[in-house]
Amino acid sequence: MKTIIKNAQVYLDGNLTKKDLLIDRKRISKIADFIDVKADKIIDAKGSVVFPGFIDIHCHLRDPGHTYKEDIPTGMKSAAKGGFTSICAMPNTVPVTDNIASVEYIQLRAKEHGFARVYVIGALTKQSKGEEISEMATMKSGGIVAVSDDGKCVQNARLMLSCLRYASNFDIPVIVHPEDYDLAGRGQITGGKVATQLGLSGIPGLAEEVIIARDIMLAESAGARLHIAHISTARSLDLVRHAKDRGLPVTCEVTPHHLVLNEDACLTFDTNTKMKPPLRSEKDRQACVEALRDGLIDCIATDHAPHADFEKEREFDQAPFGIIGFETAFPVLYDKLVKPGIISLSTLVDNLTQKPASILGLPGGSIKVGAKADLTIINLDESSTFTKENIVSKSKNTPWLDQTMSSRVKYTIKSGMITYQDK
Amino acid sequence: MNPQFLGRNVFDLDDYSREEILYILEAAKGMKEINLREYKKIPTLRGKTVCTLFVENSTRTRMSFELAANRLSADVVSFQASVSALQKGESLQDTVYTLNAMGIDLYCIRHSSPGSPQMVHKYSGKPVINGGDGRHAHPTQALLDIYSIWEKKGDLKDLKITIVGDILHSRVVRSNLIGMSKLGAKVTVCGPKTLMPGNMESVYGCKVEYDLGKALDNADVVMGLRMQLERMSEGLFPSLEEYSKHYVLSNETLKYAKPSALIMHPGPMNRGVEILPEIADSKHSIIVEQVANGVAIRMALMFLILGGKA
């Protein structure tokens, strides 16, 4: 099976170059100015850009346990629609993905449907209860790429130290969702002026910052690889900068929503502005953008977190935390950050491709001959609208519902197979 | 009938201009006169149905809303969470759909969750009066407080109003800050730091004092707030006794305020904790009148929103 992508601008080494691209079965076999061979399929990508397939190292597929929110096939399809070819599933399923059998269930379901490469992140502690270390070495032999109790945070510093030491023993990266439960309390949105105005309990930035400070110190002592999920405040970034300056193997990610929205979005009581960590102050948002630009932040991750309408259509303080993210990630960031010239297209793309890949040592992330043909073809001048009808995820919980962005994913290709095609 | 008010929601006072607030006060004055009659009823809202949807319990506020509706001859249905389908796990959305199918014209809601009045409007398409949503807002209480001051002082402009107590958990303070500022009052809030939300000055343009003497200095109006025992277990203050030592309204502390200062409290009071009986029952106290004015304010709002004929 041979496919030629013709007339496209191809993203090569950070630049857009007009090339044709030949895919032979699963791999890219040729990149040239003009390719004229007999092919089974020709994709005319005139007007579009061919990017490496996007890679998301932080998502929630809800399967097993909450398949009314999302399941593995719909999650993969949603990812494919957003241009993602590789995604990493967090273990907060029901039951928790804390053992080899659960890991294999996700891998099998993913393979059966094949719309994306799904990598599994195993739980850091058994049932993510923060009490005992999970069987992470066994899970690693089954293919997990990291361990995390995402959504929860080990409160006990002694146990966290032990987890980090054990993980480093088997060379497994540890992803932390930094949240001190006592400081976060029953907080609903960020502690700050909007929380004061709306009479909602605040989650102070401190709840995140004290755990990041703690875990950097613990990871240093343990000699472990620490990755900080969804960083959201200026002071958190200062802590990471300090750690990196000292040469510690600490990385961090930021979500699209923390890059483009601030606490003011909550003023309407829209429960689709409620997530953890919460949308922060404008000052924090700007610090995140700046850190993305200067490379302090290591990648963008969606934290795709589906919840059903009936769960989100609740009183603000009773609605669950989280929003979906695959389908909106690129179009929103392109419009809000790249088009106004705040960050470059290559900063956006690299943070969605090679940079996340390198954090967890995943394949992919660049377009080159011999590599797996994981590609995303996007028309930067054709608009798309996120309506309940055309969102592919089972859940529609996004703050950008019914908004129109100026770019549109046309094709997503994984290992030479088309996993999403527009219209 | 003033079309400007027809079908409006009262989520909070930020949606209302200074002129509109003054208009509501004038309307309430007329309603108060009705409440003093022997036959306290006018036929103006005959055929309209008002629902008091109280998801959080409150006998006083619910009675005030229901009396207001009754006196305007509206039909009143009362929904109480403790004896309703909400107890059986029905969502607020479904509850509103169900009530709406019965033909409700106006909702008055009390709920512990901020933003729930907006939800009731979204699901019903009908006007909603917020009777208190969590710590967020309590606009009818603010209007009755403002009315009570306006009635005594004629104008709020440049009055120094000091509100003392648990500012953090008070929806009354938030709505009052918005409304009183619109009428030109200078509001100072006072309480221990652990019960004071951040950003008060920048959000509301008020003054923050932690020392009661400074806060009361030269005040024209002094309002105490209920101090709740449960804040102790939340680690926000050590004991009612220590709180009282520093923040109680007494003859001794009130000596900093103007001698004519009005004394107010939204109730229910903890006598001896945030206010001493000598102050609560003093000749400058208008605490009981506030309750009477509450019925008049709620009548005025229902009248204006449902377009009653004068």
> What overall form of chain A do the CA principal axes indicate?
globular
Give the number of DSSP strands of chain B: 9
Tell me the name of the CATH homologous superfamily of the largest domain in chain B. Answer: Aspartate/ornithine carbamoyltransferase
| Count of individual domains of chain B | 2
The number of helices of chain B is 12
Number of domains of chain A: 2
Percentage beta strand of chain B: 5-15%
Low-confidence spans of chain B: none
Work out the oligomeric state of the chains in this entry: heterodimer
At the first level of CATH, the class of the largest domain in chain B is Alpha Beta
Percent helix of chain B: 25-40%
Explain the overall architecture.
The complex is a heterodimer of chains A (423) and B (310). Helix content of chain A is 31%, strand content 22%. With 423 residues, chain A is α/β, with parallel strands linked by helices. Chain A is globular, with a radius of gyration of 21 Å. The mean pLDDT of chain A is 97. Chain B is built from 12 helices and 9 strands. By secondary structure, chain B is of the alpha/beta class. Helix content of chain B is 40%, strand content 14%. Chain B folds into 2 domains: 13-137 and 291-306, 3-Layer(aba) Sandwich (Rossmann fold), CATH 3.40.50; 139-287, 3-Layer(aba) Sandwich (Rossmann fold). Chain A binds chain B through residues 191-193, 195-200, 202, 268-269, 310, 313-318, and chain B through 91-93, 111-116, 118-119, 133-137, 171, 174, 197-200, 202-203.
